[in-house]
Amino acid sequence: YLDDEIDIGNWSITLGMRFEHIESYQNNAIKGTHKEVSYNAPLPALNVLYHLTDSWNLYANTEGSFGTVQYSQIGKAVQSGNVEPEKARTWELGTRYDDGALTAEMGLFLINFNNQYH
């Protein structure tokens, strides 16, 4: 994971990039079958923080994520030819307060899935 934080006035902006490689396999000794899948994905992230005061901040974040099909789904997914990874984009908007005596946080989340396996 690489990231870089840039501070400009009351703003803190963090850009990040993570690269993931996932390999999954399934061996069935009874049927004598072996199935495997592998995925690579760059996952960018952006975090923006605005300092209202020393104690109170507003923030907005977005990050990418992905995951392989689950172990129990590998055989079915490989046979159907549909072996795309599950991808998601997470969005978060919120505020944090911490003055040493009181700490509070409120956030809203939205997760958009692509190729979601059930």
UniProtKB/TrEMBL annotation:
What highest taxon heads this organism's lineage?
Bacteria
Keywords (A to Z) from UniProt: Cell outer membrane, Membrane, Receptor, TonB box, Transmembrane, Transmembrane beta strand, Transport
Q: Which GO terms describe its cellular component?
A: cell outer membrane
InterPro entries reported in the protein's UniProt record: Beta-barrel_TonB (IPR000531), Beta-barrel_TonB_sf (IPR036942), TonB-dep_rcpt-like (IPR039426)
Which BP terms from GO are recorded? Answer: siderophore-iron import into cell
| Entry's transmembrane regions | none
The TonB-dependent receptor-like beta-barrel domain extends over 1-116
- Show the Pfam families listed in the entry: TonB_dep_Rec_b-barrel (PF00593)
Regarding the membrane, this protein is recorded as:
Multi-pass membrane protein
**Subcellular location field:** Cell outer membrane
**Similarity annotation:** Belongs to the TonB-dependent receptor family.
Q: What is this protein called?
A: TonB-dependent siderophore receptor
